[in-house]
Amino acid sequence: MAIRVMLVDDQVLLRTGFRMVLAAQPDMEVVAEAGDGAEAIEVLRATAVDVVLMDVRMPRLDGVEATRRICAQADPPKVLILTTFDLDEYAFSGLKAGASGFMLKDVPPAELLSAIRSVHSGDAVVAPSTTRRLLDRFSPMLPSSGKEPQHKHIGKLTGREREVMMLVAQGLSNGEIAARLVLSEATVKTHVGRILTKLALRDRVQVVVLAYETGLVRAGGQAG
């Protein structure tokens, strides 16, 4: 079944360009378009979508707030934020709002297509190292007192899961975590999946955000 994609951008020419790229893929289909966040939310009420390509700066309702509202719905589509503005503020806000990725609009077509497939499969398309850089830059906005993390489900994690979570938050890949803890990569993937389930998180990006917000990991990638 083709990945059902929705294009949200106030520039018609850009939507047309993206539609042409996606239409050439046998595993993708553009099923809806919208010119702003408010229209996107309205269209989604009547259209089944797997992945939303979301612009940031739009009239009426911007992409960050639209993403927040979409991701708050039951069984929402995945959101991949695309913007012409290479500003960390947008990436941070978008990820906080629930987006599964953040990319620039001038990304090569092959990378965009790969990102859509990755997001659809449940992965995040923002590299952990990029996420760590964003959070380090915005560390003054996040708690770093070193107190015991406050989150209603953190206590449900086993010692090993908490250890894996801290390494994810420090930007390590599954392979790197496996090497660090002397585990198989499959075992690490299982631990990450359990962390997502127990903490009700969508992907690795949200694991990183939560780890910093709760103080489990402090600015600079150090364990709390």
Number of strands: 7
Biggest sheet descriptor: 5 strands, parallel
Q: Tell me the overall shape.
A: globular
The helix-and-strand class reads alpha/beta
Work out the helicity level: 40-55%
Radius of gyration: 18 Å
Given the structure, what is the number of helices?
Answer: 10
Could you tell me how far the N terminus lies from the C terminus, measured between alpha carbons in angstroms?
A: 44 Å
Name the strands of the widest sheet in spatial order.
2-1-3-4-5
The amount of beta strand, in percent, is 5-15%
The residue ranges in which pLDDT falls below 50 over 5 or more consecutive positions are: 142-149
Mean pLDDT: 82
How would you characterize the overall build of this protein?
The model is unreliable at about 140-150 (pLDDT under 50). The N and C termini lie far apart (about 45 Å). By secondary structure, this protein is α/β, with parallel strands linked by helices. It has a five-stranded parallel beta sheet with strand order 2-1-3-4-5, sandwiched between helices. Strands 6-7 form a two-stranded antiparallel sheet. It has ten helices and seven strands.
